[in-house]
Every structure is written in structure tokens, then in C-alpha cells.
Design goal:
three-stranded antiparallel beta sheet, 0% helix
């Protein structure tokens, strides 16, 4: 996957197109990610115990990883990335437009 947990991403397709947020969880087997504040879904929760509160809960739903792009702070937009190997042998992701590295 081209995104990791903690990356700032921009949504490029769907009902939340143009919005940005931080990746909270990645599911590589399903090719999906959960982004903070994006694709909010409503769940009706039933109280399972006497002390637990029932009600409507709003939480983030998953988004296909093909619908997100990494946000570059230098370019101020979503960008494609490439992988490069530094002199010390460490692999990093690099912005294709400006060359900024993502950690």
C-alpha cells in the first residue's frame, strides 16, 4: 500500500472528495484505510448491559486506498509518490513533483 498509518491524505473520489485527514488504520488485505473525519457512518447501538448507554453512534467508515493520495506540505496538494533508497540503505517515499520525503 502507498499509505501508512499516520499519513496525511486527500480524498480524490467519492462523497468526501477534496477533504483531507490523517490515516487512523490500514487494512492491506482488503485494500482499505480509515481516515479521520471521512466517510462518517451512523450506527444504532443497543445497550448490551444495564449500565451501558444505547443510542446513535457516528464513526468513520473505511475508504478504498485507490481513492486517497498522500498530501504534500510543500506542494499543498495530493501527490503521487515513488520509493527511493538513500545512501545509508534506508527506503523512503518521495514526492514525484518536488522531491520532498515522507516519513
Amino acid at each position: 500500500m502507498h499509505v501508512k498509518k499516520g499519513d496525511k491524505v486527500v480524498i480524490i473520489a467519492g462523497k468526501d472528495k477534496g477533504k483531507s485527514g490523517k490515516v487512523l488504520t490500514c487494512y492491506p488485505k482488503d485494500n482499505r484505510v480509515i481516515v479521520e473525519g471521512i466517510n462518517m457512518v451512523t450506527k444504532h447501538k443497543k445497550a448490551s448491559r444495564d449500565m451501558q448507554q444505547a443510542g446513535i453512534v457516528h464513526k468513520e467508515g473505511s475508504v478504498n486506498v485507490s481513492n486517497v493520495m498522500i498530501y504534500c506540505n510543500k506542494c499543498k496538494q495530493g501527490v503521487r509518490t515513488e520509493k527511493k533508497v538513500l545512501d545509508n540503505g534506508k527506503k523512503v517515499r518521495v514526492c514525484k513533483k518536488c522531491g520532498e520525503t515522507f516519513e
